[in-house]
Specification:
Number of helices of chain A: 12
Radius of gyration of chain A: 19 Å
Number of strands of chain B: 2
Distance between the termini of chain B: 24 Å
Number of strands of chain A: 2
Distance between the termini of chain A: 41 Å
Strand order of the largest sheet of chain A: 1-2
Order of helices and strands of chain A: HHHHEEHHHHHHHH
Largest sheet of chain A: 2 strands, antiparallel
Shape of chain B: globular
Chains: A mainly alpha (about 300), B mainly alpha (about 400), C alpha/beta (about 400)
Oligomer: heterotrimer
Shape of chain A: globular
Structural class of chain B: mainly alpha
Order of helices and strands of chain B: HHHHHHHEHHHHEHHHHHHH
Chain lengths: ~300, ~400, ~400
């Protein structure tokens, strides 16, 4: 039986990690809601944002958090462009399948370009406060991890408010629920879908910055994020943002706790076990609604 | 396929949204002679192709070229196996790399741990993988496309984790050495033998695909591809059909993976369970054309050579990834039906300007054609009709 | 499914493609080696992909070897010419590369790639073509268990023996000073794991209890949980079987948790020139094994360091030195036997290497039946803001510091 201190420490680490998962999975499930697109390149953009944060810190000497001033609008624009210029061109009949391949291709291109620009070397931001931490009931919380979690939490709350409290959010939710009906009541669904994609990609920019604060990055890292994230959105119910956030916290915590008895590698399998179990016994996910039923 | 199901759900769903089926340009009436000539040419072409494949080893100037030939044949078998699912049902799997890896590891473990002879192990491993494909398919195929893709990717990642971590069985990152099935053989001879084994397997896979393509089962699968909701409404047991074809595909993929393991000799989880392998298979099949028997083979040839070319051209940088990605994106955006149909359509436009559109057939001609087709044996009927209708007719 | 016409066209297209492909494959067959032609050395290296960083180091080492040898008049009066292919850190490719080098390009000798994972498949190709295979990077013990007859590892010791001097030192300490418990964390990689587990086996035999034994996948980027486990165990010493970045991450994560062991040993990472900056200069007392040091007194090393620095602008590291050593071993064999080409010459080269000792930049090297070198690594420690050799005694630059000061 692990000691209480280790347990507490693990729970804290799990929650901090779960927050980041929640933000990223929210973006991924948003795309699915809008266009039934499984956006494989989401985590590639995440790593791209992390590289931009690293680059601005190492080459320009600014704090990585400041890089978001550029990356968030940039990624928003990329998202809109991606939806309007590429995904909208695909045939509606085969959209889900072909969009997977298209976003897969984008992910590979990003990985290749990152490798070309920054080589395959693992990179890590060296911050003055990198190893600083403070005590909390006998556990230690690293400052950088807390900042990363804070970023994720603020971004997630912001996303929630945009979806629930603004006219755009209302239009976006209508588009997600029933595109044709939304068009009938006068919503410009194409434009809304584009902005929705931008919003999703903007979360990747924030997530990437948070990621860069405390972990190593390298070009092919995105493959190790996309798997857990896809599992999370299925477990949460495809297209459901709150579902994704809750599933992310639960699975992130479970992964952390399982590392104590099982070790790092086996603990990662929890995501895939949850994925298979969900599909076999409750294909619509645990928090999903009408949408998830069919896909 | 979400949008397809959506249009079906909407009362005013525009049926025209569906892509015009490429393969269904009706033959002009009275083309009997042309048809016979076509058939002769077709048989001749297949024979020529087979002769070219079989003659390759004696033409190869050195063992390296021969080994490159083995790699391309392996890709051809894998993408043809992939095409059982991708081509017939339209479900795109990015996880076939994992099935091949399972076949490889299964074969290797059965040889090293259970002491089975190499080729017995190969067949047993393929059967085991096919059996394993049942629960995987059950989870992945109960719901529509998106979950299937997610499961297929997850399959690669989970297998990588398991085979990496379960080091006591699989050797983990230390790798697993597969004993040579013909220990006395020199390396060039080893390549030659396996070249012919792969060629035989390719023939088998192509034959199986061709048989499915002509069967009622194949028609049901294609109905799923065109419109799963309608197919289901008309009584096609869509789930069972999808599952069966997925299992067949997994079996062939595992055979190819196992044969590769016997040829290659060293297994490492990182390389056996790679997402890129799966994506190459998709790229090959799509590029060649998923609706064609030889599409994946052509794709394997083109992509196999292209990969080599990218590597030579962008040797010291990861730009070969960029090139692969751009190629995939271009195919998806501009040639989703593959090169063969695209080239074919182009050639048809140049050679026979009169036949470049389905609209060249008048309603009267079409009626006439259906009437004559109705007199023909039942099996041949759907061939002459439009893609969206043959699924319904099949279910009468 | 298609109309006949279309199918016919498809066949035609297929035929054309195939013909082109056959034509492309049937190109040059390579030319025979003559008297004054260069000695072509075939190498496949991971210049892109996961192992690209050390791969490029190995490449620099080989390039330095070729240049220095050629500047001195070449081998047997022939110039050295390197033919380097990129294997993209991929085992399939590495095999195809050596297949190409030996079968198509008909190089005169081949030398090894980087990383244990790639060495074994590559060595099999060389073995089956009967080529001598000296390699700079396959240090894990598994490499030597494959029954290869032509393989030789050009470094002082295999991974499991890297910490031998440290183990002797610790077990020789008085019982009340000796660490009682140890925590191990190793990357799931034959080399990195080999170093940590080699030490673990020796310390366990000496009575030092293992309290944590963690293996993490190479892609791990978050070491919080592993560090938490180690810190919670309060082990007296921590051993990391690390490459580079994972070692840095683990050290930072341990520092975040304020864990202060009495001894911390990490393979590879602490010898990297970037290391001190990466862990925020909190390096004091960290230990690492090394097979090479720029200050080593061996005669050829002085020339190597000097000319390498002139060529590349910075002194060589371990990867570069191992590649250079590989070149030295091949050169020694070629000069002694008096030939360098495929065929029977390779058998003579193998026999010569097996029976002789070669003077290299890492000292005199000789090998056992399996190609395993019979030496040990030196132990370095960060003392006074600088990494210095502390073990064995005869090579010592500074006294070992134990227990280490806090970080």
């Amino acid at each position: 039986m692990p000691s209480g201190a280790l347990l507490l420490q693990t729970i804290i680490l799990g929650l901090l990690l779960g927050g980041l998962y929640a933000l990223l999975a929210a973006g991924l499930t948003l795309y699915f809601g809008i266009m039934r697109v499984v956006m494989i390149a989401h985590s590639a953009f995440l790593i791209l944002a992390a590289y931009l944060a690293w680059w601005s810190h190492t080459r320009l000497g600014v704090d990585p958090l400041l890089s978001m001033i550029v990356t968030v609008p940039l990624f928003f624009a990329c998202g809109v462009a991606l939806q309007r210029l590429l995904l909208a061109r695909l045939r509606p009949v085969t959209l889900t399948m072909m969009s997977v391949l298209l976003t897969f291709a984008i992910a590979v291109v990003i990985e290749g370009l990152l490798g070309y620009a920054f080589t395959g070397t693992q990179r890590r931001i060296q911050l003055g406060y990198g190893s600083a931490s403070f005590g909390l009931f006998g556990a230690r919380v690293a400052v950088v991890k807390l900042i990363a979690f804070g970023l994720a939490a603020v971004a997630l709350a912001g996303l929630y408010l945009v979806l629930k409290k603004t006219t755009f959010g209302w239009a976006l939710r209508a588009t997600i629920q029933h595109r044709d009906a939304a068009r009938l009541v006068g919503i410009e669904t194409d434009r809304v879908a584009g902005y929705g994609f931008g919003l999703g990609l903007a979360t990747a920019a924030i997530g990437g910055t948070a990621l860069a604060l405390d972990t190593t990055i390298y070009p092919s890292l995105h493959w190790h994020w996309i798997g857990p994230l896809m599992a999370i959105i299925v477990v949460g119910g495809l297209g459901s943002v709150p579902g994704a956030a809750i599933a992310a916290m639960v699975l992130g915590l479970a992964q952390s706790l399982l590392q104590i008895p099982l070790g790092t590698t086996w603990a990662q399998t929890i995501f895939y076990l949850a994925l298979f179990a969900t599909l076999a016994f409750r294909p619509q996910g645990f928090f999903g609604g009408r949408l998830a039923q069919r896909f | 396929m979400p949008s397809a199901s959506e249009t079906a759900a909407a009362p005013f769903g525009p049926a025209t949204a569906a892509a015009p089926p490429v393969e269904d340009v009706p033959a002009t009436p009275g083309g009997e002679r042309g048809r016979r000539l076509g058939r002769i040419a077709q048989v001749a072409a297949v024979l020529l192709l087979a002769a070219a494949v079989l003659a390759f080893p004696s033409l190869a100037p050195n063992p390296y070229v021969l080994s490159a030939g083995v790699v391309v044949l392996n890709y051809a078998v894998l993408s043809t196996s992939w095409n059982f699912v991708g081509g017939f049902t339209g479900y795109i799997s990015l996880g076939h790399g994992a099935l091949a890896g399972l076949g490889g590891y299964g074969t290797a473990l059965l040889v090293t741990r259970a002491g089975l002879p190499s080729f017995v192990a190969l067949v047993v491993a393929a059967l085991l993988v096919a059996a394993l494909a049942v629960p995987i398919g059950y989870a992945a195929l109960r719901v529509r496309g998106a979950s299937f893709v997610i499961v297929s990717i997850a399959l690669v990642l989970i297998m990588l984790l398991v085979f990496q971590s379960w080091a006591s069985l699989t050797g983990g990152s230390r790798g697993l050495v597969v004993p040579r099935p013909f220990p006395g053989l020199l390396r060039p001879e080893h390549h030659r033998v396996f070249y012919f084994l792969f060629a035989g397997l390719l023939g088998l896979a192509l034959l199986a695909w061709w048989l499915v393509d002509r069967s009622r089962f194949g028609l049901g699968l294609k109905a799923i591809r065109e419109d799963e909701d309608k197919a289901e409404a008309l009584g096609t047991p869509t789930f069972a059909y999808k599952l069966v074809v997925f299992v067949v595909s997994a079996g062939f993929t595992a055979l190819a993976g196992g044969l590769y393991a016997l040829w290659f000799g060293d297994l490492d989880p990182v390389f056996q369970f790679s997402i890129l392998t799966g994506s190459y298979l998709v790229l090959m099949a799509l590029l060649g054309g998923v609706r064609h028997l030889f599409g994946p083979v052509v794709g394997a040839l083109v992509v196999g050579i292209a990969l080599e070319y990218f590597k030579v051209e962008f040797g010291n940088s990861p730009l070969h990834l960029v090139a692969t990605g751009v190629l995939l994106a271009l195919v998806v955006l501009f040639m989703p039906d593959g090169v063969l149909p695209a080239v074919g359509a182009l050639a048809a436009r140049i050679l026979r300007p009169a036949q470049n559109s389905i609209r060249e057939v008048t309603a009267a001609q079409l009626r006439e054609q259906r009437r004559t087709a109705g007199e023909a044996p039942r099996q041949r009927r759907p061939v002459a009709t439009g893609g969206r209708t043959h699924s319904t007719e099949d279910q009468e | 499914m298609t109309t006949r016409v279309k199918r016919l066209q498809m066949m035609a297209a297929l035929g054309v493609t195939l013909t082109l492909a056959l034509g492309a494959c049937g190109g040059d067959g390579g030319e025979a080696a003559g008297g004054d032609e260069p000695i072509v050395v075939g190498i496949s290296l991971p210049l892109t992909g996961d192992f690209s960083e050390p791969g490029k180091g190995v490449q620099r080492g080989y390039e330095a070897w070729a240049k220095i040898t050629n500047d001195n008049g070449g081998l047997l009066g022939r110039m050295i010419e390197l033919k380097i292919l990129d294997d993209q850190s991929n085992a399939d490719r590495v095999v195809a590369d050596y297949e190409q080098l030996i079968g198509k390009d008909e190089v005169d000798v081949v030398v090894g790639p980087f990383s244990t994972r790639l060495v074994v498949p590559a060595a099999r190709v060389a073995e089956e073509y009967g080529m001598l295979f000296v390699e700079p990077a396959g240090a894990a013990k598994e490499v030597f268990q494959q029954g290869f007859k032509n393989l030789f590892y050009a470094a002082p010791a295999v991974a499991d023996d890297h910490y031998n001097h440290l183990a002797e030192y610790l077990l020789a300490l008085p019982a009340d000073q000796r660490p009682r418990t140890a925590a191990y964390a190793a990357m799931d990689d034959p080399f990195a794991q080999g170093t940590a587990y080699g030490l673990k086996a020796k310390l366990e035999a000496g009575g030092i209890r293992t309290v944590v034994d963690e293996v993490y996948p190479p892609n791990t980027t978050d070491f919080g949980s592993i560090a938490a486990k180690i810190a919670a165990s309060r082990a007296d010493m921590v051993v990391g079987g690390s490459q580079y970045q994972d070692g840095v991450n683990l050290i930072v994560a341990l520092q975040q948790l304020r864990y202060q062991p009495r001894l911390a040993a990490f393979s590879t990472a602490p010898t990297n020139p970037e290391f001190a900056r990466a862990v925020g200069n909190k390096t004091e007392g960290i230990i690492a094994p090394t097979g090479y040091t720029q200050k080593a007194p061996y005669p050829s090393n002085k020339e190597f360091v000097e000319k390498y620095t002139a060529q590349f602008g910075s002194p060589p590291e371990e990867d570069e030195a191992n590649a250079y050593t590989t070149g030295q071993v091949v050169a020694a064999a070629v000069s002694a036997v008096g030939c360098a080409e495929q065929g029977d010459c390779q058998r003579k080269l193998v026999e010569w290497v097996r029976g002789n000792t070669v003077e290299t930049v890492v000292g005199p090297l000789s090998w056992d039946e399996t190609g395993k070198p019979k030496g040990a690594h030196m132990i370095q420690q960060w003392v006074g803001g600088e990494i210095q050799i502390v073990l064995p005694e005869d090579a010592r630059e500074a006294e070992p510091v134990y227990p280490k000061p806090g970080w």
